[in-house]
Write a structure and sequence with these properties.
Elements: H1 3-28, E1 45-46, H2 58-66, E2 70-80, E3 90-92, E4 114-127, E5 131-134, H3 136-139, E6 142-148, E7 160-168, E8 173-178, E9 191-192, E10 202-207, E11 215-229, E12 236-242, E13 254-256, E14 262-270, E15 281-285, H4 286-298, E16 304-305, E17 308-310, H5 317-323, E18 331-336, H6 341-345, E19 352-356, E20 359-360, H7 364-372, E21 379-386, E22 389-396, E23 398-399, H8 402-418, E24 428-429, E25 434-437, H9 441-446, E26 456-461, H10 466-469, E27 477-481, E28 484-485, H11 489-497, E29 504-511, E30 514-521
Length: 523
């Protein structure tokens, strides 16, 4: 054998031996690489009705079977200084202003310097290839993510590294994946049907409160479809309310039914200025998350919008009668964005949307869900009631841009804050928790009102009063009540004085040049 061939032979032999030795070492150290490009299998939903009696072993069995799929998540990263990092919890507190029509614990933020942060949350495994569901606010700002399995000792072992696959700010949901895998197979969560839940159903929460991994708490479903302020300013979300104890660090963990199936992702608590559980917690319904899982796997969730807002207040019998509706179903249009899809399609403030894309609209929350679930670019028929007559319009749905929406919300907040000072003439009290003033030429100039437009301007609103609940604000100009155009303070107060207790009236108003509608109910 020549020298050149001998050198080549031994070189190949040495390379082959190195590979073999390397494989042996890697296998002994559990470092064998895994493929992370596999497709995500969305867990099947068990919609079988929940039946059977509870016994002494029910909750023990749930903890034993579901516990191994629950993980603890520790992150390092950076966040703006102004955003206090409270261990991944959105604490809900009453709003002190009428902005947004209720509780809205977030405020538009200015650019701030960033600071390093550390925190801990929870999650649960949904696929053996290492996919884990958690809250978006758990991993928000993370530059390094470690995941601890229930079989690990967090005090002694290093967690498994993970990466963010997709995130959705609107539902406060995130999908992450392990980038290094344990030797033993991963335990997968099972999905239940959150639409089956009813108040009084037993549930269990498992999570990592205060970094006490796999803590189990038990309670009942307190309410379903609870309209709760979400993670995005100005937007609410339908959630499961439970009294199962949820604390800091439970965020992202599962809420389970008595079969040990995930029916929600624990995400928020109501607090009384403290930081602990007071028996009111909220979870994102798992059906809502399941529907967007394929998009989370692709890294981005796309939703539709039509450029309008609907009133939160339900359509009562007297409201239905005033609109000429055959029943109490539908969503009342509160505002319409200029040049948006709804505006271009002919929808106006005070219309009642009764069908969207051929499906009956039950209420405002359902309409929002229908619109967001519609693919951008789709043209849909929208059935409305206007002046007590039904009609059908066509609206082309466009893509929802949350960043743009939040920027506009910040501008709106700034304008609302700047105009809290009341106009300088004598106010007039009403029975609705607000004071009104005459629109003087000076006020009309300050508010940029056309000559002769508006009946009165709201000068103050009592916290938690009728006007506050209807989302009316100081500086709003009342244009019409129940379809009657108003032209003066005495006319406005005269109409309002005749409203009986329990009756609801439609108040059309002008705010920053945009018309809106409020359902004002006298209590």
């Amino acid at each position: 054998m020549s020298g050149r061939k001998s050198t080549f032979f031994y070189g190949v032999l040495i390379a082959l031996a190195s590979v073999v030795v390397g494989m042996v070492i890697a296998s002994r150290l559990d470092l064998a690489p895994a493929s992370f490009a596999g497709s995500l299998t969305v867990p099947a939903t068990n919609s079988t009705p929940l039946t059977g009696a509870l016994d002494a072993s029910t909750f023990r069995t749930i903890a034993k079977t579901a516990g191994p799929s629950v993980v603890s998540i520790v992150i390092e990263g950076t966040r703006p200084v102004q955003q206090s990092f409270d261990n991944f919890f959105n604490f809900i507190q009453p709003d002190q202003s009428p902005q947004g029509g209720g509780r809205n614990r977030q405020r538009p933020q200015q650019q701030q310097r960033e600071e390093p942060i550390q925190g801990a949350g929870s999650g649960f495994i949904i696929d053996k290839s290492g996919y884990i569901l958690t809250n978006n606010h758990v991993i928000d700002g993370a530059t390094h993510i470690e995941v601890f399995l229930s079989t690990m000792n967090e005090q002694l072992e290093q967690g498994y590294a993970a990466k963010v696959v997709g995130r959705d700010e609107l539902t406060d949901t995130a999908l992450i994946q392990l980038t290094e895998m344990p030797k033993e197979p991963l335990a997968e969560s099972k999905f239940g049907d959150s639409d089956q839940l009813a108040p009084g159903d037993w549930v269990m929460a498992i999570g990592n409160p205060f970094q006490l991994s796999n803590t189990v708490t038990v309670g009942v479903v307190s309410a379903v479809g609870r309209d709760t302020p979400g993670a995005v300013v100005g937007r609410s979300q339908q959630m499961i309310q439970t009294d199962a104890a949820i604390n800091r660090g439970n965020s992202g963990g599962p809420l389970l039914n008595i079969r040990g199936e995930v029916i929600g992702i624990n995400t928020q608590i109501e607090t009384d200025q403290g930081s602990g559980n007071i028996g009111i917690g909220f979870a994102i319904p798992i059906n809502m998350v399941r529907d967007i899982l394929p998009q989370l796997r692709e890294g981005k969730v796309t939703r539709g919008r039509i450029g309008l807002s609907v009133l939160r207040a339900p359509i009562t019998n007297d409201v239905a009668t005033s609109y000429g509706l055959p029943n109490n179903l539908g969503a009342v249009v509160g505002t319409v964005t200029a040049d948006g899809p709804a505006d271009k399609g002919g929808i106006k403030v005070d219309d009642v949307i009764t069908k969207f894309n051929g499906k009956t609209v039950k209420d405002n929350a359902q309409l929002v869900d229908m619109v967001m679930a519609t693919a951008p670019g789709t043209t849909v028929p929208v059935e409305i009631y206007r002046n007590k007559k039904p009609m059908t319009l066509s609206v082309k749905v466009e893509a929802l841009d949350l960043a743009q929406e939040q920027e506009q919300a910040g501008q709106q907040f700034g304008r609302n804050r700047d105009r809290q000072q009341a106009p300088r003439n004598e106010p007039k009290d009403t029975a609705f928790g607000m004071q009104l003033r005459e629109i003087t030429p000076a006020i009309a100039h300050d508010l940029n009102l056309p000559a002769g437009k508006g009946g009165a301007v709201i000068s103050s609103v009592e916290p938690l009063g009728d006007a506050f609940r209807a989302t009316l604000q100081p500086g709003d100009v009342i244009l019409a009540i129940d379809g009657t155009t108003t032209t003066g303070l005495d006319q406005v107060t005269g109409i309002l004085d005749k409203v009986a207790v329990g009756q609801t009236v439609r108040v059309r108003y002008l705010r920053d040049g945009q018309e809106g509608l409020a359902l004002l109910r006298r209590r």
